């Protein structure tokens, strides 16, 4: 007999069964008792003293059981029998409290949660600022942090009165910061004019859910193609983008003829984010 499904609430699983087993027992053994995230695909680990369970990620951070305070090995041993059980169950998405009604197994969970439209994004500028939907991130960055932000993988940065700015850089720096929002990532572009140089740096910050943050390598699968354009000079270079740190620098230096020019022309910098670094030399802006 199939039990009726309840409407999602803040306290219970979205689309969960209303029978006593699901309503009172299931969530206690399928969600981490510390972070409250689903343990499907990432646990569970068990306390050998009291039987408390939590996910693998939390297990890396604790040396004592959160409930009985018994000493633990780091990480605590996984409970393979319980892991096999919850991996086969149809369990709610981690975003069920935000409205997602999908039921997932271990084989479908990772791909769904990476792309889940109910996932919230972490502000890439200020730590512990807020978590908001991806479609609201651009407005948040511009309103709260006064940073230009667009949903795109390429942008054209126009620097007007470039000669004046360039001549001032012997004693001070001029900086620009722009954010490209693409595929649940923030590509933070920093342009710095100093000592007659123009330097562009790019970093990538994942905004949404990462199934296993430990598996994320420092180098991402993205690269940036950067083109500098003025009437006297055009140059293009590609840089590999790193995760959580500014990448290797794309840099250009203007020669004496251009620096002494009285023409207050504008300089344009094109930046395009690409997925394949192997093809970065062939990228067309």
Explain what you see.
By secondary structure, the protein is an alpha+beta fold. The chain folds into two domains: 20-108, Zinc/RING finger domain, C3HC4 (zinc finger) (Herpes Virus-1); 122-282, Apoptosis, Tumor Necrosis Factor Receptor Associated Protein 2, Chain A (Sandwich), CATH 2.60.210.10. 19% of the residues lie in helices and 30% in strands. The strands form four sheets. Strands 7, 8, 9, 10, 11, 12, 13, 14 and 15 form a nine-stranded mixed β-sheet that branches. The protein has a two-stranded antiparallel ribbon with strand order 1-2. A hairpin with a 2-residue loop joins strand 10 and strand 11 (197-206). 27% of the residues are buried.
Outline of this structure?
The chain has about 280 residues and is α+β, with helices and mostly antiparallel strands. It has two domains: about 20-110, Zinc/RING finger domain, C3HC4 (zinc finger) (Herpes Virus-1, 2-Layer Sandwich); about 120-280, Apoptosis, Tumor Necrosis Factor Receptor Associated Protein 2, Chain A (Sandwich), CATH 2.60.210.
Strand content: 25-35%
The tally of strands reads 15
Q: Could you state the CATH homologous superfamily of the largest domain? A: Apoptosis, Tumor Necrosis Factor Receptor Associated Protein 2, Chain A
CATH topology of the largest domain: Apoptosis, Tumor Necrosis Factor Receptor Associated Protein 2, Chain A
The Rg value, from CA coordinates, equals 25 Å
Question: How much helical structure, as a percent, in the residues?
Answer: 10-25%
Main sheet summary: 9 strands, mixed
